[in-house]
DNA sequence: AATCGGAGCAACCGCTCGAGT
DNA sequence: GACTCGAGCGGTTGCTCCGAT
């Protein structure tokens, strides 16, 4: 013989928002038992509540428990959720076990109302964490993002330059050129994506010789990596490879800021971008970096940058 | 001041899985 | 082994709040 049916379908069982009295009765009952709930099914009767056991469990686990953290999600928590979601999918309860004081329901709501939209704005599929195809990407024109990207690239280039040009310089230049062509291109979005894809291919084929700083272009720039969740890992790698106070770090950090800001905007098709700032004007603040010689003195870099910029 | 629409969130619904009979 | 139920989980709904018009 099986068990008796659940109370959830009983007529007269109260539904809807909980009152203060009900909350109090539930908390007092559970505290009286030393936090040991026992059977949720039998709880409502024992606690004097006209509620379904299921409803009581939900109210307790999602709202009344003392260890629940309140308030906004921190950046760190948001990052963790994205990373975990990339590997676990919609396993909200499993994700919740990695965030102290957060419930699965809260994380699920936060994902659906904040993170999901944010990823879509950035052209990232929130389900697969892959870059969305061009025709599904949000193409709202946003001049601010366009204005930031060239400068971000130059700062990133400065970081690369300061990190050393001994090996893979040619490869770096090619990648950079692809990226700058992507930005400067007056073609359709398809052209932009094609250029970025070419840059990606170069990066992927040259991981052994291109310095970590070069990954930077890939990680922050337009969120063009195949997996969004991996980006912060590489960014941290970059941060670990440099120290605060060094010129490389300063350049990389500036590029980071700009890329992050740009990535938070909707990226417009290249044809809609406003005229770019003068190359010289962008280059000027980088000349202040101690130890930077390549961008200024090395015509190799300067030529590439200028040529690409004029495309 | 009133109305409308969107965002955020608490709560419900329905399904799955494991355990009891 | 078959059946039934409880607990837990993810998806969805509907209420409330708030800003825009």
From TrEMBL:
It is found in: Nucleus. Residues 10-64, 65-119 form the HTH myb-type domain. InterPro entries: Homeodomain-like_sf, Myb_dom, Myb_TF_plants, SANT/Myb. SUPFAM superfamilies: Homeodomain-like. GO terms for cellular component: nucleus. Keywords: DNA-binding, Nucleus, Repeat, Transcription, Transcription regulation. Residues 10-64, 65-115 form the Myb-like domain. GO terms for molecular function: DNA binding. It holds the Pfam family Myb_DNA-binding. This is Transcription factor MYB39. It comes from Aegilops tauschii subsp. strangulata. The lineage of its organism: Eukaryota, Viridiplantae, Streptophyta, Embryophyta, Tracheophyta.
